[in-house]
Amino acid sequence: MRRRNLITGGIAAGALGATALAGPATAAPKPRRVQTGLDRLVAERFATLAGQKVGVVSNPTGVDADYRHLVDLIHESGRVDLVAAFGPEHGFRGSAQAGGSEGTGVDARTGITVYDAYGASLAKWEELMTRAGVETVVFDIQDVGVRFYTYIWTMYTSMVAAARLGLRYVVLDRPNPIGGRAYGPMMTPEFTSGVGLKEIIQQHGMTVGELARFFNAEFLPAEAGRPVDLDVVACKHWKRDMLAADTDVPWVMPSPNMPTPDTALTYPGTGLFEGVSSISEGRGTTRPFELVGGLATDFDYHWSDRLNNRDLPGVRFREAYFVPTIAGHHPPLLNKLCAGVEVKVTDRAAYDPIRTAVAMLVEARKYPAFAWRADSYDPVRPYWVDKLTGSPRLRTMIDAGADVDDVVGAWSQELAAFEQRRRPYLLY
User: Fold this and answer.
1) Over the stretch 231-258, which tens digit does the pLDDT of each residue have?
2) Fewer CB under 10 Å: which end of the chain, C or N?
3) Which of 411, 404, 402 is nearest to 311 (CA)?
4) C-alpha atoms less than 13 angstroms from C-alpha of 200 in its C-beta half-sphere
5) Where does the Peptidoglycan beta-N-acetylmuramidase NamZ N-terminal domain start and stop, copy by copy (predicted)?
6) What's the CA gap between 211 and 279, in Å, rounded?
7) Full-model pTM
């Protein structure tokens, strides 16, 4: 009972702390530190993990306010039996590109085995956890708040495996860098994949701790036969309307092409261009997911002009030219001059990344060279954008000539239903 009170009590403590820090009505607001779950764990001297055999699911983002990594801190504490680490997509050290990992090896600093867990099946997760002798799994990764960013599915699958093995699961929560509002379409069961295993909204507006609570109640009883023994170490002083720029939480690149919080802000929308074979989302440039374009022989300045004429809220478009230096999902565009747009967010509060991306797709579809990306390995569901958006609806509506309001309006009811469904699991 003490353990659970220690963790869930952080929510009330965060509210009280925020009030105390506000000060007199006439005083200027004082800066405050948003504490992550890891920051709280360190402050409490790892009490909730003491004496347990722990396996950590993390990557370079699992750092405290002084950029010290969770694995190193646990190892140095001497209070926790650290038996393994598990690396997601891009690897434990974050060096691999999209769709890649680093393999299994030994961490030089701590001497523990780091297992490659990217894309691991339930059976593989169970085998790895059993081999390592794990009693408690700890998850600490900075998510970016989008369904097709795969870390949340690493969390989900490892939660199911832990439930089936009767293990404890602890999530060290972190702020959602793009805030707590939900946008976009719902995943449908027919189009689940590694970029969307379960039915949640595209920009879910939840922290990983909130998602873990949602998963545990809504999906694990059916898939694992029971919920996992879950604890969430909540953040303190974070509110749902905060973006990464509003906090002092250290930013470490969650993946090689997610360099800044600005990238994360546009990613829920421009990530959809992974589903267009003729257009690069700027991988290998200094502004991935903000620079978007196709071959300069096929696309031109009219794209930015048409988008700016739409006067979309919170954003402008700069005519842009760039050369992708990473093939990513678009090998024919590698090292070729591309023409397109740079997405310039002018008002973070007004900006809707998914609506903006729909407008970008509608205008790009007018170019003869535009082509949806088709994957031959899945002839039944060949279009990658359908897996990203959760169904064929967006693609077929744009192909049929639908404009932005029609496309966005098509998911209004499912979005409202999701917002209602997630409400019991929100912590902030």
Assistant:
1) 999 999 999 999 999 999 999 999 989 9
2) N
3) 404
4) 28
5) 54-261
6) 32
7) 0.90
